[in-house]
Specification:
Blueprint (H helix, E strand, L loop, with lengths): L5 E14 L6 E14 L2 E10 L2 E9 L3 E8 L2 E7 L4 E7 L2 E18 L2 E12 L2 E14 L3
Antiparallel strand pairs: 1-2, 1-10, 2-3, 3-4, 4-5, 5-6, 6-7, 7-8, 8-9, 9-10
Amino acid sequence: MDRKAVEETVDVQLHSSIQHPGQEKETHEFQAVGRYMEKNGTFYLQYEEVEGGQKIQTTIKLGHEEALIMRSGAVKMRLPLSTKGKKLGEYENGPMTFKLQVEAKELSFSPAVGNNGKFSAAYKLYAEGSEIGIYELSITYSEGKS
C-alpha cells in the first residue's frame, strides 16, 4: 500500500554553536518559514536563509542514528551524520572546495506531533585531517502561522 506524502508549512527555529580549536564558542540563532515533509516513512525539513544577500536552501533528512544536511545556492554542502562512525562530506563556497569528515557524537529526532518537532546534532568536523571544530545544532519546528 502506497503511503501518501505529507507536507506542512512550519516555523523553524535554529540554534547552533561552533567551538573552533583554541577559540571562543560562537553561537547563532535563525528563524524561518520552512516545510516539513514525510515521504515513505522518511522525514525532511527544508528552509531558506540569506547570508550576505545570497540565498542558501537547506534540506535536512531527519533521523535518530543517521541524518543528512544538504545546502545549495551561495554555499553547497553535503554533510552526512551517523552515530555509527565517521562519514565523508563536501563543502563548496565559490572556488573553494573541501572534503570533510564528520563524526557525530549525538543525534536526536522527535517527529512532529501536531506539527511540533525537534532535531538536534552534536558533531566534530574535520577538513584535510585537521579538526575544524565541534558543532551543536538544535532545530525546533512548529505548525506554521502563515
